[in-house]
Amino acid sequence: MDKFPDSASPGSPVPQALEEAAQAVRSGDLQRAHQLSVKASQIDPQDPKALLLCAETAPTLEEALTYLSRLNALQPENPEAQQKTYHLLQQLLKKDPFLLYLDETDHLYHVRSGEKLSLAVPKDRSLPEAYPARRPAQLQRAFRWLWMAFLGLPLAGLGAILFTPLAAAEGIGLYFKTSSKTNRIYSLMVVLLSGGLWLIGLLLAVILLVHLV
């Protein structure tokens, strides 16, 4: 069975509309080509050729990406759709360098542009890093431990002594796990802050012991 099915099934009006759209493209009438490709996609919303032609003849970059997102959701491994998606996505980022991560599946990233345009992007190639970037779970836990250590300083430094090793462990683990330069810098900051807070906590604990003695 063909991985990317042909839309030319007997008795379907879709092939005729697509053929007329292709003729319009060859004659340079992109507006008519887009109208015909949209008609074909309305007849069969899951036809990959219709969606691809809609994207190729779309009057705006955002509209083209919308059609490609629909096609990516249907066929995330379609190589032609992947290539066009990354090419247009680069153009979109040149206009507005903002890409917000929403979620992901095994095959797709779901992101949102600065124009509030929700996109489905295949995972087969590396994406420009989303901005603002999502913090790894280890980094989030490290910051929580640091916050708890800071709050525990007034308790004779015991909170800092207890929680900073946990934060440092998360930071060290992230440093050796991540390939992101930004996350490595954050992990080093966590380790340094943990060490500083631990020393302050130790100093407060010693002062308390001296006064008690």
Label this structure with key terms.
single chain; 213 residues; mainly alpha; 3-stranded antiparallel beta sheet; 8 helices
Strand order of the largest sheet: 1-2-3
Portion in beta strands: 5-15%
How would a crystallographer describe the biggest sheet?
Answer: 3 strands, antiparallel
**Radius of gyration of CA atoms, rounded to a whole number:** 27 Å
Q: What is the string of helix and strand elements? A: HHHHHEEEHHH
SS element count, helices? 8
Class computed from helices, strands and strand pairing: mainly alpha
Helix content: 55-70%
Number of domains: 3
Mean pLDDT: 82
Assembly category: single chain
State the separation between the terminal residues, measured CA to CA: 83 Å
Shape: rod-shaped
